[in-house]
Amino acid sequence: MFINPRQSGQRELTISLYSCNLKNNFIVYIYGLKTVISSVGQYDMGVCYGNKEIEYSEGIQITVPLKEFEEDIHLPLSSTATQGTLPVTVDRQPPSLYRLYANLIFKDDKYFIVFVKVKYQLRCYIINGRCFNMKFPFELPSASSAECKILCTCRQQQIEGSIWVASTVSHSHVIRFKTFLSLVDTQRLYDLAIAFGTRKVYPNMRPIQYFYRNKSVEYFQIILNSNYLNGEMRPYLKSNGGEQGSVVNGRLPGLFFSTYIDTTTNLPNPCSHYGPIRLYLKSLVMFNPQCNLYFADFFCHYKRHHVTIILVPKLSTHNNFCRQYLTELNIFHNPYLFLRVECNGAFTVLANMDVTVDVFYTETINVKRALELQYGFIEATPTIGRGFAPPSGTPKNPSCKICNLVT
């Protein structure tokens, strides 16, 4: 039940229900909504809510206490069994555009009631039609966890004054996502990484000759033996691993490489979490003065902390995206990955070993050519854990007090 409170601070609502055709005990959920008109669109903002379990009788008059919204408020029907699940997807486009849509068309017009909960606020808007595909008519705060629920209803009936009853024919599951980090948020995350790294007076920078990447046997067989790929290892869109609100998730294509080496042996970890075949590529082939670096992420998976650095050639089409949404790093002077100019004018790549520096390279790499010209090689490595990365990526540890933003 949705109401427009007659006055701010209304503490309770008394209603009479005589013609609802209810035969069993039920729970009444009330949401007080206030219409808001913004520069983006019109919607309703939740101002109060309440619920009460009701015993069935012929004539029902109930008083439901109302209270202000709290963080643990439930979305409508979020705890009920699904009635013909409504398949809904959220599409996120940086910097702050969010759109809900369903690949489903009804025979008749329906009312789609969309609820969005973020922080302590509940917002609502209605779409009328046979399907829906609409951006949110309001701005959402950055770097925040959001929940959505869509009710598909029909046959509205006015039963008393401004009280209306609509039958819900289907509804979605609760859809959870995190809003994008703004450029300011990304800078704040970078500051957290810097604060973590300054625990030591001097960062543990080590020269690295190779970037390396582990994948399955089948992955490399397809690259090297397929006439379609012809030896090329092609970028694909970054998963939702790490910081869930990162603008690069699902938007920027690339390939992950590791820089970490054991500081006692100066060799990479002999085992891998990501596959039994390891490709090594000379670091200076990928990282040189014709490239730009961008800080993208700082996270952990309950153990070691990681920093994600985007490595993109200056002439790449992805440079504008990175420059617009990420923190750019000086390629000759930064705490994580840089070029050192030697006395003879040659370059050496140095990487920080106090954290795991993950390099996300945005361009296609011809593995076959690298092997033929010997600036790359392949070796087998034992696997540990799952032995592969989940396609959706592994989210960061949400309880870590070191690498999570306070919003």
From TrEMBL:
InterPro entries, alphabetized: PHYHIP/PHYHIPL (IPR042868), PHYIP/PHIPL_C (IPR045545)
Organism classification: Eukaryota, Metazoa, Spiralia, Lophotrochozoa, Mollusca
Domain Phytanoyl-CoA hydroxylase-interacting protein-like C-terminal: start-end pairs: 204-405
Signal peptide: none
Species this chain originates from: Mytilus coruscus (Sea mussel)
Pfam families in the record: PHYHIP_C (PF19281)
Name by which UniProt lists this protein: Phytanoyl-CoA hydroxylase-interacting protein-like C-terminal domain-containing protein
